[in-house]
Amino acid sequence: MNPDDIERLLASDVTLTPSPTFLASVMRAVKRERTALPPLAFPWKRAFPGILALATGLIGGGISVAGDTAIMRMLDEQLTQVAIMVIAAHLHWVALALVVTAVSLVTANTISSSEPDWLGNGAS
Amino acid sequence: MSMGGEDEATVDRVLEGDTAAFAVIVSKWQGPLVNLAYRFCRDHARAEDMAQEAFLRAFKRLGSWRRHAAFSTWLFALATNVYRDALRRVAPDTLTVEDEMATTGSAEEIALDADRRELVHRAVKSLPPKYREPLVLFYFHEQNVAATAASLGLPAGTVKARLSRGRDLLASKLRNRL
């Protein structure tokens, strides 16, 4: 088959006529979509006071702990003990492996779920 | 009222809550969208399923149509993306042209134009997506590079280069056939 034949065959493709039920079928699907309940949105307005109180508490607690030398010294000792245990049990390698796994999973998921941006606002 | 104006007025009605007005859009564009889907999948029933999915997505995202582009450009770009996703969800067609020749018969037996066309389209379907999509859209858009580029969201130069490479690949697959 020569290039001219290929060109001619590609340019003269068959033309289909949609089946008579196609329009009705699409409109049924559209109406179903229209009547479907929208997904529940996270209640940000109701949660806001709680989130604000939590953030204030955490920040306030952090500041008060940081200002108390005795508590900071005790915290430092405990962290040092934990660090010694982690190194002795080679847990740092386990943690590193978990981080690498998590990063690769998130990256793969992001790449596979992303849609090209070229269609503009959601035309994809 | 111009064709674009008709589309715009219909879209406005749908966006204002007149769901039934969407039937005007489906009625007008069902032929092109089903045919475009068919050129991707070569299966009539599946083409209608894919076109329905495209219309449904268009309905959901109608508000995102930027009016400075033609409605058809937006719709074809959206449909192309839906079809690309639909084809990605199923196993690729691994049948080679050589396999097809073996199952269909010898070159001498396949004399009809329809068979030759089918063979060409199977060869197109077996191309990598980056060459297959421009080829399918180029002939669907009556060999208009600008429309093909708009549907794919690629520069015209890139489309031309991919068309050229796609044709070379096709020619090498179909050389000495039929």
Description:
The complex is a heterodimer of chains A (124) and B (178). Helix content of chain A is 73%, strand content 0%. Chain A has 124 residues and is mostly helical. The model of chain A is unreliable at 115-124 (pLDDT under 50). Chain B is mainly alpha-helical and 178 residues long. Chain B has nine helices and no strands. Chain B is globular. Chain A binds chain B through residues 1, 3, 5-7, 9-19, 22-23, 25-27, 29-31, 33-34, 115-116, 118-124, and chain B through 19-20, 22-23, 26-27, 30-31, 34-35, 38-39, 44, 47-48, 51-52, 55-56, 59-61, 64-66, 74, 77-78, 81, 113, 116-117, 119-121, 124, 135, 139, 143, 152-154, 167, 170-171, 174-178.
Which descriptors apply to this entry?
heterodimer; A: 124 residues; mainly alpha; 5 helices; 0% strand; disordered C terminus; B: 178 residues
Briefly note the structural class of the backbone of chain A.
mainly alpha
What is the SS-derived class of chain B? mainly alpha
Oligomeric form: heterodimer
Q: Helix and strand string of chain A, N-terminal first? A: HHHHH
Helical amount of chain B: over 70%
Return residue spans of chain B where pLDDT drops below 50 for at least 5 consecutive residues: 99-110
Compute the average pLDDT of chain B: 84
Helical residue percent band of chain A: over 70%
What overall geometry of chain A do the principal axes of the alpha carbons give?
elongated
**Which protein chains are joined by the largest interface, and how many residues does each one contribute?**
A-B, 35 and 50 residues
Total DSSP E strands of chain B? 0
Number of helices of chain B: 9
Strand content of chain A: under 5%
How much strand of chain B? Answer: under 5%
From the alpha carbons, calculate the radius of gyration of chain B and give it in angstroms: 18 Å
